[in-house]
């Protein structure tokens, strides 16, 4: 079996041998980019190169980029533990051409790596193109010999990428792997596409146009390529499993949480083990990159992820803080590729231990309150906003944690009631602040983040683009 570490290496070697500069992953906190909370795609560190603000000596690059998608437009937090293919933290393998090669070579490379180097069965691969992109359609026919019904034309923005309201943009092509008809789900564009049978493994972006202030588009003189492939998803394919959580890295992490809690990743407890493994990765990597838990901004997103995992540790019956005891396992799996994990190991363990110790003081009581409040509720009912707010305000339950806790029984939350309770409390606080000299505005981000869970800071305006692959 090819390990995830070998697959990452194999990808970088393949493109390195094809004259790409092999570039280290950038940190998760974007450098000098206040519009984006965390790096969420491989192209983010190269944004200025694509727009022409910066240039690189070598016009091709390849990387395995750390990504977090736990808020904002790309919020995969709620999927984690419940789909086979979503994580809050994942690695995006990418190859980039800065005005060098274009569509044909990008498709040749992708097809060669997948079917020749890695030996995937071409019959299991399906691609999509933007509905007007005849060029990509013809290239897939010519290079891959795919039958027309497996080059699906898609008219939505899923297949058209743009960096922002203005700037580079262009059509995309997504490559899907068919895990077989024993799994629920339909091909892309079909009503059942959200199932887990056809899994998107690789996204090729053809940066071909420039969008101007007046909305018009012109051809870029030197079009570029940006691609992104989820390492965990391709690892599942190459390791012959359907589910990302059955790959080597996740199996090792889940084995550790099983052992420490004396439970099995089966039935109702399966999601808890998966959430713990996933959130262990995102929290550890965020801590290693200098994010600390707090009540606002990036730190609050981190705290939300941590607490969510800690509730699942509680579900598994953990009597003491659990998360920090798993860090060593993560370091064994990923420390060689990411030495920052080794350097930060002690800090990660100490922070997780302290956070979990603190949260456990209110977790039990909060869960009890939740139990009482939901007694007699029927699936489809919503929890009173007041109660969700009390859990948040008094017991430190982030909104999405309560949502996650109610999910299994099919209960929702009265979001408007929650907002109203939040506003009322703010009014009280504002009145109390008068004369204290404190700035009321300090807390504004906190409110927004709590409900919206935005990864974008306010002031970010573009509808499409914070620069990630769509
Ligand atoms: P999906 O439609 O499955 O949510 P996407 O189209 O949002 O994926 P892209 O933005 O195109 O994803 O990112 C490029 C690649 O990164 C995807 O093809 C996929 O392999 C991987 N990827 C995206 N989101 C995740 C995630 N949350 N967890 C793991 N891998 C991911
Ligand atoms: Mg997505
Ligand atoms: Mg997609
Ligand atoms: Mg995509």
Automatic annotation (TrEMBL):
It is found in: Cytoplasm. GO terms for biological process: alanyl-tRNA aminoacylation; negative regulation of DNA-templated transcription. It comes from the Bacteria. It is an enzyme of class 6 (ligase). GO terms for cellular component: cytosol. It catalyses: tRNA(Ala) + L-alanine + ATP = L-alanyl-tRNA(Ala) + AMP + diphosphate. Its EC number is 6.1.1.7. Keywords: Aminoacyl-tRNA synthetase, ATP-binding, Cytoplasm, Ligase, Metal-binding, Nucleotide-binding, Protein biosynthesis, RNA-binding, tRNA-binding, Zinc. Residues 2-470 form the Alanyl-transfer RNA synthetases family profile domain. Catalyzes the attachment of alanine to tRNA(Ala) in a two-step reaction: alanine is first activated by ATP to form Ala-AMP and then transferred to the acceptor end of tRNA(Ala). Also edits incorrectly charged Ser-tRNA(Ala) and Gly-tRNA(Ala) via its editing domain. Consists of three domains; the N-terminal catalytic domain, the editing domain and the C-terminal C-Ala domain. The editing domain removes incorrectly charged amino acids, while the C-Ala domain, along with tRNA(Ala), serves as a bridge to cooperatively bring together the editing and aminoacylation centers thus stimulating deacylation of misacylated tRNAs. Belongs to the class-II aminoacyl-tRNA synthetase family. This is Alanine--tRNA ligase. The gene is alaS.
């Amino acid at each position: 079996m090819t390990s995830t570490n070998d697959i990452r290496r194999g990808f970088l070697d393949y493109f390195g041998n094809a004259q790409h500069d092999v570039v280290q992953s950038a940190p998760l906190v974007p450098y000098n980019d206040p519009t984006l909370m965390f790096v969420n795609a491989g192209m983010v560190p190269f944004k200025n190169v694509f727009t022409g603000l910066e240039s690189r000596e070598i016009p091709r690059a390849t990387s395995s980029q750390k990504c977090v998608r736990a808020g904002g437009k790309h919020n995969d937090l709620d999927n984690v533990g419940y789909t086979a293919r979503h994580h809050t933290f994942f690695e995006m393998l990418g190859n980039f051409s800065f005005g060098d090669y274009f569509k044909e070579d990008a498709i040749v490379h992708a097809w060669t790596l997948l079917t020749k180097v890695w030996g995937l069965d071409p019959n299991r691969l399906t691609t999509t193109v933007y509905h007007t992109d005849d060029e990509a359609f013809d290239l897939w026919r010519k290079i891959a010999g795919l039958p027309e019904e497996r080059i699906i034309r898609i008219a939505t923005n899923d297949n058209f990428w743009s960096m922002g309201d203005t700037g580079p943009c262009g059509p995309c092509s997504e490559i899907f792997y068919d895990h077989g008809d024993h799994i629920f789900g339909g091909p892309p564009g079909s009503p059942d596409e959200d199932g887990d049978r056809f899994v998107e493994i690789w996204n090729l972006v053809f940066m071909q146009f420039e969008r101007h202030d007046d909305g018009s588009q012109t051809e870029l003189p030197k079009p570029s390529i940006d691609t992104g492939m989820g390492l965990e998803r391709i690892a599942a394919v190459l390791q012959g499993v359907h589910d990302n959580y059955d790959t080597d890295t996740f199996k090792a992490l889940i084995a550790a949480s099983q052992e420490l809690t004396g439970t099995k990743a089966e039935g109702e407890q399966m999601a808890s083990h998966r959430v713990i493994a996933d959130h262990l990765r995102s929290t550890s990597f965020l801590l290693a990159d200098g994010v600390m838990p707090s009540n606002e901004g990036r730190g609050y997103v981190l705290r939300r992820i941590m607490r969510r995992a800690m509730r699942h540790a509680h579900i598994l019956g953990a009597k003491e803080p659990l998360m920090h005891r798993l860090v060593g396992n993560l370091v064994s799996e990923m420390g060689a590729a990411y030495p920052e994990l080794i350097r930060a190991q002690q800090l990660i363990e100490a922070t997780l231990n302290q956070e979990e110790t603190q949260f456990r003081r209110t977790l039990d009581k909060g869960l009890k309150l939740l139990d009482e409040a939901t007694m007699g509720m029927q699936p489809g009912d919503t929890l009173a906003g007041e109660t969700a707010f009390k859990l948040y305000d008094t017991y430190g339950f982030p909104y999405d944690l309560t949502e996650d806790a109610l999910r299994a029984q099919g209960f929702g939350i009265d979001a408007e009631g929650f907002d109203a309770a939040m506003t009322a409390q703010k009014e009280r606080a504002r009145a109390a602040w008068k004369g204290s000299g404190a700035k009321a505005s300090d807390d504004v981000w906190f409110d927004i983040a709590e409900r919206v869970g935005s990864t974008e800071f306010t002031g970010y305006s573009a509808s499409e683009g914070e620069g990630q692959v769509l």
